[in-house]
Amino acid sequence: MRFLHTADWHIGKKLHGYDLLQEQEQAIQQIRQIAATEAVDAIVIAGDLYDRTVPATDAVELFNKWIQQLNLTDGWPLLAISGNHDSPIRLETGSAWFSQSEFYLRTKLAEAFQPIEFPDTQVFLLPYFEPIAARLYFEQEYKTIQAAITDVLAEMKQQFDPAKAHVLVTHFFVSGSSRTDSETTLTIGGLDGISLSALADFDYVALGHLHGKDALKAERVRYSGSPLKYSLSERTQQKGVWIVDVGPDHFDCQFREITPPKDIQLVTASFQELLDPAYYELIQRDAFLAIQLTDRAVIPNMMNRLRAVYPYILQVERQTRQTQTTTLAQPVQQLAPPALFQQFFTKATNETLTATQSDWLARGLAAIKEAEQ
Amino acid sequence: MRFLHTADWHIGKKLHGYDLLQEQEQAIQQIRQIAATEAVDAIVIAGDLYDRTVPATDAVELFNKWIQQLNLTDGWPLLAISGNHDSPIRLETGSAWFSQSEFYLRTKLAEAFQPIEFPDTQVFLLPYFEPIAARLYFEQEYKTIQAAITDVLAEMKQQFDPAKAHVLVTHFFVSGSSRTDSETTLTIGGLDGISLSALADFDYVALGHLHGKDALKAERVRYSGSPLKYSLSERTQQKGVWIVDVGPDHFDCQFREITPPKDIQLVTASFQELLDPAYYELIQRDAFLAIQLTDRAVIPNMMNRLRAVYPYILQVERQTRQTQTTTLAQPVQQLAPPALFQQFFTKATNETLTATQSDWLARGLAAIKEAEQ
């Protein structure tokens, strides 16, 4: 079979306060177009459909519209699971009816063991779950998610049809993956994700949770990543979906890019440069922008003046120099406070104190001395 | 056709802080039993399925379980609309799939004009809406819901099949109905409900919103009332559902009672009586109880002592005597403050001030006089 693997839609997510619904809709439209162009047999969504357990109504509206479009109107089988951001119970609403039109939405561990059968492939849908769910299902104690997963996969394998390929769709941190800033850590009381080796019996594992497609270096176990950049740390990631061809005797996996409707960029410049048309006309100033200001001086009304030019500022940070790792000339204990501060200031800023700053320092130290007496 | 008419389930509602989910589940089980016994062709739920636009997850779980049971497992056509307590967008989730198994859930005005066709009856599902929705649909201004309803019904009637009976399911206040305390008033900026006469062209109107089955005195336009008592003011209401037989040339409507899993009762007694086994062994003390205390004295640790005997106390009120309407012996202006207070006290309590109370009064009045100087 050939399917499209996506995940982490996070519908309703806001980026530093900016609504992303329009961008999310455009990304889903691109996914739909890719599915059509690639003539896939199914669309797999590996969890975190919503960004919050109680999404806002406009997020629900967007979700309702697009699952209806993709499944009922376009006729694609949808294979979806809940992720750690979804409320399993809320997301479950309607799922008993969805399966009548091949929209398989699984939110409970107990539903993971009956595969969705395609002519040459079995697809197992394992929603995100916490160890307590495994304890209730298997009636035994699990300290780690890895221990629970071992039993889950063992039970799944009893359903394996040896004549078919076996695909697992799930939503966990797989050891060895690299994180970004926008995935909520799944770790609970020291438990972490699951090991790559536990997944070796599947012909393909379609993962959700991490937002970068390259988070894991494994041929048959992949994160699709999110369809949009959801944090500054994802700004250089290429976003898209995997087109997976799998069967008992073949495997192929190709990446298809999603063009970001609005990009995230990091710029480093002085305030003066940023307000200079010669500078800003050369950059994509309606992108979501993180600004690193090279200035050190106080800038009155800075944010408003920047926003007049850059409508989608995510954050403005002063550029801080790298902490120097060279050792100080003299041991700290041997320096008097004024000399110690002067030395620290020079290491941190590559500048020396001005006369005014030296005066502030002297008065500050005197005040401390007085207060201590 | 023969259908069961219920409404105002308010799943997730709490009664003075008490969770009602268990009682709600038992009421739905009774509805299911009545539907089976009466061999109805469909179950009509006239709005307010949930109590809140964002119901708690345990409420969602109960709702999901029972719509699945009634429609998919038992096979009843369900005809339901959103009420003023429901979020139309949230409730809509899944509805496009529901109709594949004759679960018709309508949450938008635009969906009201296409009737659900039964062999001898057309059923129109008109969800609760606000005038703004009519303005968007008809592209004209409406000041009152009555004006909007007039146009809505006129458009509906264009779909009338003269060979069939016509049933309307909706969720509004119909003028002339009597309210209780647990229905949120629909009035917005002075607009009120719809007139009974506007509904005359229907063979039956299945209403939701008011919680008493007798709120309206009309043969063919009825509130089913809520399946449970949802406020103290509903304590004497008989709860249940209507079994409606309707066709082009016949009509019959019978009430089928729901036994309250836990009743609401009002008791009037003294604290001493209430704690006396001879008293409380004769009453249903595990009912939801509103207590009118006849005592006037301060009772230390009152609530805890009462709760030890009565686990589900809704409220405790001191019994206040009816305000006397007899005129005072002398016009108020001619009485000195002590005499005026004495007279008021006697009228209000049928008692005279004790010596201590008279002393408090004198000292209080003196303090006021002093403060005023």
TrEMBL record, chains A, B:
CDD domains to which the protein is assigned, alphabetical: MPP_Mre11_N
SUPFAM superfamilies attached to this UniProt entry: Metallo-dependent phosphatases
A Pfam entry, by short name: SbcD_C
One GO term of the biological process aspect: DNA recombination
All copies of domain Calcineurin-like phosphoesterase, residue ranges: 1-211
Residue span, Nuclease SbcCD subunit D C-terminal domain: 261-347
GO molecular function term, any single one: 3'-5' exonuclease activity
Keyword annotations: DNA recombination, DNA replication, Endonuclease, Exonuclease, Hydrolase, Nuclease
UniProt subunit comment: Heterodimer of SbcC and SbcD.
Family from the record: Belongs to the SbcD family.
Physiological role: SbcCD cleaves DNA hairpin structures. These structures can inhibit DNA replication and are intermediates in certain DNA recombination reactions. The complex acts as a 3'->5' double strand exonuclease that can open hairpins. It also has a 5' single-strand endonuclease activity.
Protein name as catalogued: Nuclease SbcCD subunit D
